[in-house]
Write a sequence for this structure.
């Protein structure tokens, strides 16, 4: 065990989509679309989140692999 070094954890990088939604339902529809890999035919990683902004609007973000 003396020779093993711990590697630092890689920080998750998020991509925020430009569109801001007024309802969580609208954001949820886009989230479902991204999870089904419909965004321009590109493979989208599975971590997709809906974030609530301070002014009760919603934004969608997803992770990507480097």
């Amino acid at each position: 065990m003396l020779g093993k070094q711990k590697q630092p954890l890689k920080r998750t990088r998020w991509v925020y989509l430009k569109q801001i939604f007024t309802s969580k339902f609208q954001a949820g529809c886009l989230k479902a679309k991204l999870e089904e890999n419909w965004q321009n035919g590109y493979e989208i990683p599975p971590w997709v989140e809906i974030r609530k902004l301070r002014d009760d609007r919603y934004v969608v973000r997803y992770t990507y692999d480097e």
